Amino acid sequence: MKPRRLLPLALAVAAWPALAAELAVKIEIPQLQVAEYHRPYIAMWLEKADGGQVTQLAVWYDQKKKDNGGTKWLKDLRQWWRKGGRELDVPVDAVTSATRAPGLHTLTYVAGKAPVDKLAAGDYTLFVEASREAGGREVVRVPLAWPPKEARTASSKGQEELGNVTVQLKP
Amino acid sequence: MKTIKLAAGAALLLAAFSSAHAHRQWLLPSATQVEGKEPWVTVDAAVSEDLFDIGATAIKLDGLSITAPDCSQQTPEQISSSKQRGSADIKLAKPGTYRIALVNENAMASYKLNGETKRWRGNPADLKKEVPAGATELSVSTTRSRLETYVTAGKADLAVVNPTGSGLELLPLSHPNEYLAGEPARFRFLLDGKPVPDLKVAIVPGGVRYRGVLKEVMATTDANGEFTVTWPMAQMYWINASYPPRVQVPEGQPRPPMPALRHNYGGTFEVLPQ
Fold first, then answer.
1. A35 vs B212, B218, B252: nearest CB
2. Which portions of chain B are predicted below pLDDT 50?
3. Would residue A67 be called left, alpha or beta, if left means φ above 0 and alpha means ψ between -120 and 50 degrees?
4. Phi and psi dihedrals of A148, rounded to 5?
5. How close is the nearest chain A Cα to the Cα of B3, in Å?
6. Given CB atoms, is A136 within the 8 Å cutoff of chain B?
7. Taking CB atoms and an 8 Å limit, are B208 and A136 in contact across chains?
8. Residue of B73, B59, B65 lying closest to B106 (CA atoms)
9. Residue B61 DSSP one-character state
10. Taking CB atoms and an 8 Å cutoff, what residues of chain B touch A138?
11. Are strands B261-272 and B235-243 parallel, antiparallel or unpaired?
12. Would the CB atoms of A133 and B49 count as touching at under 8 Å?
């Protein structure tokens, strides 16, 4: 009796569509004890390990200011600004959004979908840069291979503006 | 049309001013301990977000007050004002510790004239002259600010390290030119000579451009208006507080109206390596 019962379940699993490869990034924005706090601007991008090609993943900036005034401080994400941020015509669908409060934020990217739809196979470095008004600026890097051959987790930690940045890859 | 444009311009200016409070006002002495016969120091003054970067607006040093070790007042040998900074060259003819301070008062007014909202910003002494007679719903907010630093020629003494008794000020409880990294220093905040308890104090090191992380320290004054900071590293520091305390509003919410009188203090202190 038992095998027969399990059979439909096994069939169901086999019929499940093949899942697309996935890159999830958890960014921790620390709570800071400072006299004047503004949410940080954050940029996240992938850089091919052999240099060159940049894929923009996320840019969080103040989108509530009148006349797109919040874009004025995007230049303070200095590494990002030099790695294509300067040329990026914000807002960009699936990339730009509002600033976020301290806490843990998860972003998930699926193979074949923007903004990783054109991401060639290879070794990459994930960059997360944070810059805060009246505060500091910090960059955290995590290496990764795309597309992932196996499930893998890697993380790196900032000192002040960024907490843990954790990358979770699923094949 | 012209008046509308002007009013809009003034509103923009005001908006820029109130949203640009992240911009810090500071004095920066070229050195805080100097030796030799009649040594000189140069004090720069500017407004910027990152301390002590030149790159935004100059502060004029015409009203700079210099208190010599014998508590007499002296004037700078020369003052210059360029696009991005004000500068004063000061000869320290007498040995001992000098207090260098810039005390300013600024008024912001809004009023209605013929149904239009107008805004004005300037010296409170000019208020009566600048606001027309027919103005109604006049609301004025005055900010008193003190920017301050200390420098010492030769042997340090404490003769000028005294409260003036006016406005918001910071009294160092040990010598303000003898701070070392890793060591604690104690201060007292006073408002019109009285200790200010429960005041939030920002202790911000300069040089963030080359460090990335800011390493700001926040302190709150105790019942005696006092706080202790243990200097995290050698650097020029800016200690800032304002009274009444700023109201922290959630992101995107409008700020409450400015109080009729507010005080702002910004002191610059050098911390040397051990």
1. B218
2. 1-21
3. left
4. -70, 140
5. 23
6. yes
7. yes
8. B59
9. -
10. 212-213
11. antiparallel
12. yes
> Which class for B205: exposed (0-12), middle (13-18), buried (19 or more C-beta within 10 A)?
buried
What secondary structure letter does DSSP report for B5? H
Tokens standing for B213?
A: 């992380």
Q: Distance between CA atoms of B100 and B83, rounded to whole angstroms?
A: 22
C-beta of residue A81 within 8 angstroms of C-beta of residue A96: no
Q: Inter-chain contact A136–B215, Cβ cutoff 8 Å?
A: yes
How far apart are alpha carbons B219 and B227 in whole angstroms? 7
Report residue B12 as tokens.
Answer: 């923009």
* Torsion angle, alpha carbons of B192, B195, B196, B198, to 10: 180
Between the alpha carbon of residue A111 and those of residues A56, A108, A115, A124, B74, the distances in Å are 15, 10, 9, 15, 71
Please say whether the beta carbons of A118 and A27 come within 8 A: no
ipTM: 0.83
Interface size between A and B, measured as CB pairs under 8 A: 49
The answer to whether A160 contacts chain B (CB < 8 Å) is: yes
Residue A61 tokens, joined: 């900036």
Q: Looking up tokens 């005294």, which residue turns up?
A: B162
Which of A38, A64, A135 shows the shortest C-beta gap to B214? A135
Which of B22, B200, B212 minimises the CB distance to A134?
B22
Rounded Cα gap, residues B204 and B148, in angstroms: 15
Instruction: State the CB neighbour count (10 A cutoff) for residue A126.
Output: 22
C-alpha distance from B67 to closest chain A C-alpha (Å)? 30
pLDDT digits (tens, 9 = 90+) for B18-59: 334 468 999 999 999 999 999 999 999 999 999 999 988 999
Nearest to B46 by CA among B38, B54, B34: B54
Tokens of B111: 């009023």
Query: Smallest Cα–Cα separation from B33: which of B123, B157, B189?
Result: B157
Q: Contact B21/A36, CB-based, under 8 Å?
A: yes
Q: How far is CA B153 from the centre of its chain?
A: 23
Separation between Cα atoms, residue B129 and residue B112, nearest integer Å: 16
* Sign of the alpha-carbon dihedral angle for A30, A31, A34, A35: positive
Are A99 and B251 within 8 A, CB to CB?
Answer: yes
> Tens digits of per-residue pLDDT, A28-48?
999 999 988 999 999 999 999
